[in-house]
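Here's what a typical entry looks like (Dehydrogenase):
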Amino acid sequence: MTLQTVSSLVVPETFSRWLDSRGLIYQLLIDFFGRKPSLSLVAQWSRNRQMSIAAEMTEGGRELKRYLCSQEPGELPKVCEKENLEYKRLMNEGAVGSFVPREAAQLGRSEEFCNVLSDVYASAGIVFKKCSGEADDHIAIELEFMAVLHERMLFNSFSVRSAMELLEIQETFLEEHLLRWTPQFCDRLNAATDSKLYLGLSHMLEEFLPQDLQMLRAWKSSLENSAAAMA
């Protein structure tokens, strides 16, 4: 999928590759943290040329790319069966010690904390259709929130002001939610598995999110400077 910005948003070359890649990275993380790694899912991402480009943004992405792309077609069913079992072991709440893929559990908060996330999503006009009954603070749901806002920012922003509003929501969500608990989540995932798939995903996640926040801040500053110059 080729991402295009609306004509009212001027994107400097410095940010274009990041904007073209970040949606793909969020979607890959959502897919593998949110559902079992089926044969079609693994084949889809291992053959995705744009994902190969996006993977180069982090060492974890390159690690994941090497693993997915090194599999012979005839070996994929066996690989998927193995990673499918690992997904079930890791993602069933309480199945692997202190490893739970939810913000409340990682930060020691009560179940009512999900109401906070629900209000955040609602304030942005987003309602999720959850096929597997995921909690609002599940890693895949929080990442999907970022992915939806990213697409809105690129495709539905008809002014710098509306783009800035969506950018600021993403910046705040990273600061107040994802980056507060995913470092601990990744540390525990790294200790809980020897799967090359889930280690690659974990390394990619822990590298990408801080980079993404840094780029959001830099682009925000660029937009502010451009607006000031035109005033």
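The chain is about 70% helix and 0% strand.

More examples are in the samples folder.
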